[in-house]
Amino acid sequence: MGTNVSTNANTDTLLDVKNLFVDYHASSGTVHAVTDVNLSLKRGEILGLAGESGSGKSTLAYAITCLLRPPAMISGGEILYYPRPSQDSRDNSRVAITRLSKTGKPKQTKDGNGQSIEETKSIDLLRLSPAQLRDLRWNDLAIVFQSAMNALNPVMKVGAQIMDVLRTHRPDMGSDSRKQRAKELFQLVGIAPDRLRSYPHELSGGMRQRAIIAIALALSLRPRLMSSYSVKFSPRLCACGRNLALL
Q1: Which of 83, 84, 205, 223 is the most exposed place for a label (fewest CB within 10 A)?
Q2: What CA–CA distance (Å, rounded) separates 42 from 44?
Q3: What does DSSP assign to residue 200?
Q4: Per-residue model confidence (pLDDT) at position 149
């Protein structure tokens, strides 16, 4: 599958949203939830969206992460992601994206062997196939879902939910390695590893929120883009943020 490719002189750019429109189609008519939105995010930058309930914040976040479902539909615009080769040996990205040049021939790709595309090239996320998006999510793109209690499966232990992500996206990882990875993630976000055996309702609100952050970091301790909803202030989360900043 070919993807839109453009060049960007500023390699510090991570994400460009250009003229984005999102509509909800209903029997009573079309609701224009997001209208002509433009924003740019630099590497290492934190961008906050503020607005009243129903203003389209969540719709925009789900559009950027390509998680919208009907009746929502992106009716226009581009979401350009600028990956950049990492010199960090811990970079676990396995995104496989084939680009087409103007002549229709494949260009340089990034694959499971760590070969990276040119850092000035952009990818239009809206033109990726489901398989390509699956590889991108949790590796380069992570999301901390709104309302941790609703985002977690109430009938699965939180440790099993972390290991489920690893089992799906890292099929070559053994059972013992998955368990060790889950313990490391809980320690990173300030939760005792023995709470991996807990169900969501057995954790406090702050612990559930940190468990969601752990899931977002399950495949890569340094996702290039992370979307998060209404993260509550707490000393534990501040400590978690300091730990992430050191990675």
Answers
A1: 205
A2: 6
A3: G
A4: 67
153 vs 164: CA distance, rounded Å: 11
**Residues belonging to the chain:** 247
Q: What is the pLDDT of residue 119?
A: 42
Q: ∠2-81-124 over CA atoms, to 5°?
A: 30
pLDDT of residue 11: 65
124 and 11 part of one domain: yes
Please tell me whether residues 89 and 9 are part of one structural domain. yes
Low-confidence ranges of the chain (pLDDT < 70): 1-11, 84-120, 138, 146-149, 219-224, 226-247
Instruction: Give the amino acid at 200.
Output: P
pLDDT of residue 199: 96
Q: Is the dihedral of CA 94, 178, 230, 244 positive or negative?
A: negative
DSSP bridge partners of 97: 110
Q: How far apart are CA 66 and CA 61, in angstroms?
A: 9
CA quadruple 25, 26, 31, 33: dihedral, nearest 10: -60
Instruction: Using alpha carbons, select from 17, 143, 126, 19 the residue that is nearest to residue 73.
Output: 126
pLDDT at 24: 95
Report the distance separating Cα 149 and Cα 160, nearest Å. 15
For residue 29, the cross-strand partners are 26
Pairing of strands 13-26, 29-42: antiparallel
Amino acid (one-letter) located at 102: K
Same domain? For 168 and 112 the reply is no
As a whole number of angstroms, the distance between CA 101 and CA 218 comes to: 34
Cα–Cα distance for residue pair 35/19, rounded to 1 Å: 8
The two structure tokens encoding residue 167: 């089992």
**Are 35 and 124 found together in one domain?**
yes
